[in-house]
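Complex record, two chains
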Amino acid sequence: MKEQILGYKCSKCKTVHYPNRAICRKCGNDKFEIEPLPDKGKLLTFTHLYNPAGDFEVPVLDLGIVELSNGCRITGQMKIENPKIGMKVIGKIEKVRQSGYTSYKGMVFYKA
Amino acid sequence: MREVYVVGIGITKFSRLEYPLVEIAAYPSIMAMKDCGLSSVDHVYVANMGGSRLNRQTALGSALVDHLSLYPTGAETIENGPASGASAIKTGFMAVASGVHDVVMVTGVERMRETNNLEATDFVASLAHPLAEQIYGVTLPSLAGMFARLYMDKYGVTSKHLAMVAIKNHNHALANPFAHLHMPITIEGILEGPEASTNNPFVADPLRFFDMCPVSDGGACLILASKDVAKKTKKPMIRLAGVGQATDTHCVHERKDPTDLLAVREAAARCFKMAGLKPKDVDVAELHDAFTILEIAESEEVGFFKKGEGHIALEKGYTALGGKLPINPSGGLKAKGHPVGATGVGQAHEIVTQLRGEAGERQVKNAKTGFSCNFGGFGNNVVALAFQKEK
């Protein structure tokens, strides 16, 4: 089964939220449908973080905020050389953090 | 609603302090009580963010009341991230304004250097969204880096402007005996000279080492009182004229415009409305410059300058001591330091010191109205305070 990150679409106004919330921030409705988030989008902003938390065994962690093709935004890691604001990116689900015995998967963005 | 006055103030040096957490809270509290000559209060509010994780201590309100032998006075701890300090002041304000209490103690305290810098940064990052931000390694410096990149792209702010904020606030801190960093810095040393990249490496680009506040220990205290009590203390009548608080989305990526600091704008507007003041009435301000870009952005959002013009005011020297509107005469978080739970109380301490005319070499001349902005989360919970000197 393909791994996906799920968005939460308001059943009334159809706004897609990520992460989930109990009440739609646009119309106040409390019912949502689960909808996989698209993997394509454009890079809104980014940083190279040179002092990541102790459990990241890398000297530099690249992070960005991406606006996905459905308008929903997501924060994720990046593996892109020379990133630029506005560039097209594609996301893949990968392991993003290993904290003790617990590992976490999330969105990692590459150049589209 | 009753009028509320600041009658006593106290502060520790912000630095690395090798004392137990409760003693760092007790020192400024005793100083504040001696300042106003009171020996008891009706209630104690302690602002703290990291005691449970960094110092293995909870229920600090109870601990402080015991340490000061103030029991059976009521007490509690208030945690609202890096805005805990101003949140506690707001809570104390409401207690006195409502008539529930006549005198309250508000003490902010933090001891972050008991752990190492990476652990301290990871602790502060615990305020980010657990699943949508924290798992990726998002920290506050990384959110500030992403914010700064977009802000610089949109408004023409440059690395030099950011360095100018750091240089200004380091200069201000030289005249503040309580400041963490007494270190003059130059544009050559941190940006333009041959050693600059060694002295000032990137931390979360475009932000560099000297764009970040230090990790500090420290405590600060205000005693708030009703007008009747304030008159009896014979201290300068400094009124806490307005409090305002507002929130924004937990995840930064959910904001319509990620360079918009909605909660700063709303908190300031609510504060000014309660106080019956306008931003142009302010003579001195303490803004939450945990990162240099935030001083510029907040100076616009609270209404001192038009959006996109904060860096121009900085260039013209308006925000330096001696300028039209000195910002962060204490050195700000950038150089005075940022013991997170104590910061909002420390900002208020500086404003009251300025309005009393007791700030020595860093005194803003004829300061009668002051303002502080305490920024929690990455702008998702902000508390603004306005103070006025009365004759």
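Note: Chain B has 15 helices and eleven strands.
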